[in-house]
Design the sequence.
């Protein structure tokens, strides 16, 4: 494509790889210009690899003749994703670019929620009749492949009502005697998913079964499309990102970090931060309740951050382990008793370990700096016993909270590290001052 | 397989699905028995879907004749994974079960680190000569498929030295005119990976490029195998699990939660917990430094947990966002300045929000309960200003720590939420008491 205007402020002609690297920092105009200057083959590869958001903004930034061409390059499932990104008028304008068959396919896909099996699937799969011979099937597929197939890894045998009868991999088809019928070589115990299955569940099935593709069926058993492993790689990453962000104590961002608008990001963080802050205010109330004890023995205040944060850290470990194991299906709701036993003993062992370190630290500091007064051994004992209690309790709370949230119908991943820490902070103070009253009564208190 | 012994204490004959559900709670013997009672076809599917660890323990629990049969069922990459799980004598015994060609393939794979591209790949890919015609290639592949192909999604054109010349998808091969040469229809700009590329990088390439398979080359450009998308689904899940566990403030477990031995798990958690505890001890020192201020104005102590935890929570959000964005390649080391700017303003806005809530809370409590004495407005001001400082600082620290760790050659994911919280706790105390001295000097202090 010749460029009539001498280039001054625009980027020089970049290779596809250079453009890929520069992409995140380029303006929409520079992106469009760099893209249009790519050789046709590179441009096609480049375009297909972009995510739906970048595809839609790029389409908006290039001239109409190019927009028509590039929208038609997209497979129907990708085209549907692009249409999800744009407004209704632009959607109609883009849909007008494609032929009737594709428009039907794309519109059909738009009806699905983006994170359902239906929203992931491609309607272009290889279909054969069970009555066909292997040879007929192969040569039919060879003609089908000409036009519009997403994958030819498996061929699906459908009855006249589009109901799935069996599946045969190309490999199996290739090795089968040519005169046999598809029905003789296909497997009939097909693993399939309903069109409204959540993508997280679909992904788990892929991970457990090591599959390359899964058929998607509607409520009547009619085959609507296939989901392929390459799409699932994206889903697994997306879902992990969501869980990680929730575990960090915020709402999941729906877009990459640097592309999320500032206000949206602050909102998604601010909501949880404020909620945690309100919860954490209970610590001020708890501390107020023990104000007299603190006034009489200021030394007690010194260890407050140490003790409550140890409980929070232990709880963070436990909740993280349990939430991830739940997401992977390694731990199921009915495993709660196994988990509680395991975590109780973990917490106890970890608490005893920390309490030993804490006791040692106070005794050593006293001998080095005389920091904690004549009753330093009692102070050390208070800290040590509190640590055992707080760490055990933090571990238990962190491991049980995801079960509880799930039971109440919430996302277990909301039991974020900060959430557990906040919970444990308040109860940790109560544990600490209760132990202090027991140990120090008559001496410091 | 007939069962000569009447069943008493062992499970009844289970279906494959029932066995799958019961699997985690069965003993090795019950697993072996349930497995051997499955119909042959179901058993094969069941066995192949097990992970390497379960495959190796199952092989150890079944009689030798069955062990021989089932080990030979495994593809070479899966067989290599099983051998990684067992001791040297058992490894030799298992290797003796397979034919020479397979033994060579499996031994070749054992040389690779498990988390390299080489450790993921299968040596059984479809190879063609560039000089062959499309028709020759198709019928050759049809014969190859008979024996030992992992996937027939792409065919790879190799020269006589096994160097990769190009790639052609089966779909492209099918649609090409039969008399053309493979060299005419293949693509020569093949995306490939070196055999020692880390699996995390390989996974990122799959996610970015939406591929079904990638060829793996050695240093001389010779093709050694292919990595397929179904294996990558597992890798992405594994890597996300590792990052999530590190973010929770512990070493990553290498095995599923419920299968990790108790002591190993306690060790992996205890190490970080102790390190964090040692760091958190600095809070006791910092508090000791301000002991006189606390003694003079006990009211100050009441807000310590609230203030430091707010900094920790804000830092946890920031570090989580940045670490995940780094893992996905959305944020690169050179983006640090964009991130710092963004996080500074996020922290400031969030801090101002929390400080408004905090100020309001203290004023309302004073009017309701007269909790904070005559200088309550100054106390509220101290808390409010400290919150702005602590939250802004926590956010900045949380976002920069992953960059710093990466720069120093550590894993950015070690900048876990608890790690950042510990860092911010100490500095948060300093900020709080400095603000207190400035605001309350002459009144409470």
Sequence:
């Amino acid at each position: 494509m010749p460029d009539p205007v001498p280039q001054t402020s625009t980027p020089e002609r970049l290779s596809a790889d250079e453009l890929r690297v520069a992409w995140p920092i380029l303006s929409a105009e520079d992106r469009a210009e760099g893209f249009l200057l790519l050789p046709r083959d590179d441009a096609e590869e480049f375009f297909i690899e972009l995510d739906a958001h970048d595809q839609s903004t790029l389409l908006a930034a290039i001239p109409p003749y190019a927009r028509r061409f590039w929208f038609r390059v997209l497979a129907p499932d990708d085209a549907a994703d692009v249409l999800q990104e744009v407004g209704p008028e632009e959607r109609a304008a883009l849909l007008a670019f494609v032929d009737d068959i594709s428009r039907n396919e794309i519109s059909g896909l738009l009806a699905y929620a983006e994170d359902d099996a239906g929203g992931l699937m491609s309607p272009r799969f290889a279909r054969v009749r069970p009555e066909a011979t292997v040879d007929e099937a192969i040569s039919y597929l060879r003609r089908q492949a000409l036009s519009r197939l997403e994958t030819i890894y498996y061929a699906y045998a459908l009855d006249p009502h589009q109901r799935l009868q069996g599946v045969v991999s190309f490999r199996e088809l290739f090795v089968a005697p040519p005169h046999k019928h598809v029905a003789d070589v296909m497997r009939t115990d097909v693993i399939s998913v309903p069109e409204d299955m959540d993508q997280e569940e679909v992904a788990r099935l892929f991970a457990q079964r090591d599959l390359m593709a899964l058929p998607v069926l509607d409520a009547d058993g009619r085959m609507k499309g296939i989901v392929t492993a390459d799409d699932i790689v994206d889903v697994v990453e997306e879902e992990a990102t969501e869980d990680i962000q929730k575990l960090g104590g915020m709402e999941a961002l729906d877009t990459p970090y640097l592309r999320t608008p500032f206000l949206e990001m602050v909102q998604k963080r601010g909501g949880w931060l404020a909620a945690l802050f309100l919860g954490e205010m209970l610590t001020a109330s708890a501390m107020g309740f023990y104000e007299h004890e603190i006034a009489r023995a200021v030394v007690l205040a010194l260890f407050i951050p140490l003790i409550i944060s140890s409980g929070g850290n232990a709880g963070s470990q436990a909740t993280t382990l349990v939430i991830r194991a739940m997401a992977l299906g390694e731990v199921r709701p009915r495993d709660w008793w196994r988990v509680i036993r395991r975590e109780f003993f973990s917490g106890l062992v970890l608490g005893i370990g920390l309490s030993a370190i804490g006791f040692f630290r106070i005794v050593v500091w006293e001998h080095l700096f005389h920091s904690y007064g004549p009753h330093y051994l009692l102070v050390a004992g208070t800290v040590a016993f509190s640590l055992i209690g707080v760490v055990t309790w933090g571990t238990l709370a962190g491991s049980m909270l995801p079960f509880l949230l799930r039971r109440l119908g919430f996302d277990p991943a909301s039991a974020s590290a900060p959430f557990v820490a906040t919970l444990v902070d308040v109860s940790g103070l109560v544990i600490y001052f209760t132990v202090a009253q027991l140990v120090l009564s008559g001496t410091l208190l």
Observations:
- Confidence is low (pLDDT under 50) at residues 1-11 of chain B.
- Chain B touches chain A through 112 residues (CB under 8 Å).
